[in-house]
Amino acid sequence: MRIDIMTVFPEFFGVLDVSLVGKARRRGLIDIAVHDVRDWTTDIHRTVDDTPFGGGAGMVMKPDVWGHAIDDVRAQADISQTCVLAIPTPSGEPLTQARCYELAKADHLIIACGRYEGIDSRVAQYYASQPNVVVYEYSLGDYVLNGGEVAATALIEAVGRLVPGMVGNPESLVEESHGQAGLLEYPVYTRPANFRGMTVPEVLTSGNHQAVARWRRNQALERTVQRRPDMIARLTNLDKKDTAFLAQYGWIRPKKSDQPVRKVTVRRADNNDVNSLVSLAAQTFPDACPASLDQQAIAQHISENFTAEHISSWLTNSDYIVTVAQLAGELIGYSVVVTNPDLVSDSGAPDNANCAYLSKFYLSRPWRGSGLYELLMAATLQATQNNTVEHRLSHIWVGTHETNKRAINAYKKAGFIRFGRRTFRVGDVDNTDVTLVRELNLAE
C-alpha cells in the first residue's frame, strides 16, 4: 500500500517512524511519503490560504495549490489504479472500523490535511468527478482539531494495521473492539494477579478455556450494551447463550430467530396503556387455558374480566401493581400483582397475611422463550418488594392450571415452589389450578 500525506507541517509525522507502522515501513508493507504542500506555491511567501468568499472568520486553503500538489503526487503513482483521496474534516462522515477494512484494500491513499477553516470545497468536488479517484471526507468524532494531521495519523494507524502482515497475530483483529465480532473488547489483565487489593477474575486463571471464552464473550456483550447500545442493535452472529445474556439487559429477539435483538422497556403501566392491555389480555389468556375448556367459557371470562373499565381500576388502585413490557411502541407482556392480601379471597392461597398475589403474568406468543419472561418476572418481583413497607409483604403466590406444565416449570425456575390447589372459575366452568409460592427476598 502506498500512502501520501499532504500537509503544511511535514515534521508532525515523525511519529510514523516508530511502533508497528515504522516496522511495516521498514519491511516494505507500507510505503509512506510526506509532502509539504507549500512546495507547490508560486509566491515568495509560500502562501497556501486566502480569505473566504462571502466573508467570515478564518482563512481557507487555496484550491489551485492543492490541485497542483495532488496532481503531481498522483502522477508519481500508477494513475490507472484507484486512488482514495481522504480529507479529514469535522463535517465528514464518522470513521468506522468497517470503512478502515475497505480502505486497507486500496492500492493508493492520499491524505489531504487541511488547516484553518479547511480546504476549498471545490478540491473534493473536482477529484470526486475524476476517473479512478474516490473522495472520502471523514471525521474522528464530534469535536474540532487544529488541523487534519492528528486525524491523518489515526487513519494510517487504523488502516495500516489491517494490511496483511502488519499485526503479528491476526486473531487479535477479530477479538478487539469494533473488530469482526462487532463488539467492544472485553477487559484484559496481566501479572501481577493482585494489584492494590484488586484480583484478576478467577475464571481467567482456571485453565478452563471454554469458560474463559464464555466469560470474555459475556464481558464484551455487557460492555457494549452499557457503552455502545447502537452496536448491539446491529449484531447478527448471536448464539443461544448470547441472547440469554443480552436478555438480562433488555435486549431480546423471538426464540429460534436470526434477526437482530431489540431493546424492550419494562415499566409500570399507566392510563395510556389501557386499550393495549385490553387487547393483549384477550390475546394471551386463552393460551393459559386447558385444551378441554369450552371457547365460549373463555370468551365469557375475557368479556367479564378484561374490559377497559377493569384494567383502568387496576391502574388507579394503589393495591395493584401493573407492569408492562413494551417494544417499539407495542405491549408484548404484562403482570398484575395484588399487594393487599385482604383483597384476595381464595381457598387455595397460602395462609399468610403477608403474601402478595401474582394475579396475572402473560407474554405475547412470539416472545416466549426470548428471555422476556425472566426480565418481566424480575421487574415484577422487584416492584412487589418495593411495596413491602406498606403491607409488610414477605411472600408472593400464583395459581395456574394443573395441565399448564410450561407455566408451572417457568414459575419454579423463578423460585416458586408448589403449595397446593385451588378452584378457578372460567365462565361457568370450574378448573383446578396448582398454586405456588416463594419468598419475596429469596436469594437468586
From TrEMBL:
Role: Specifically methylates guanosine-37 in various tRNAs.
Primary localisation category: cytoplasm
Subunit structure, interactors included: Homodimer.
EC identifiers of the protein: 2.1.1.228
BP GO annotations: tRNA N1-guanine methylation
Domain spans labelled N-acetyltransferase: 264-441
GO CC annotations on file: cytosol
Localization of this protein: Cytoplasm
Gene3D superfamilies, alphabetized: 3.40.1280.10, 3.40.630.30, tRNA(m1g37)methyltransferase, domain 2
Organism: Arcanobacterium buesumense
Recorded family membership: Belongs to the RNA methyltransferase TrmD family.
Record's protein name: tRNA (guanine-N(1)-)-methyltransferase
Keyword line: Cytoplasm, Methyltransferase, S-adenosyl-L-methionine, Transferase, tRNA processing
UniProt GO MF annotations: acyltransferase activity, transferring groups other than amino-acyl groups; tRNA (guanine(37)-N1)-methyltransferase activity
Superkingdom in the source lineage: Bacteria
Recorded catalytic activity of this chain's protein: guanosine(37) in tRNA + S-adenosyl-L-methionine = N(1)-methylguanosine(37) in tRNA + S-adenosyl-L-homocysteine + H(+)
Binding locations of S-adenosyl-L-methionine: 114, 140-145
A Pfam family hit: tRNA_m1G_MT
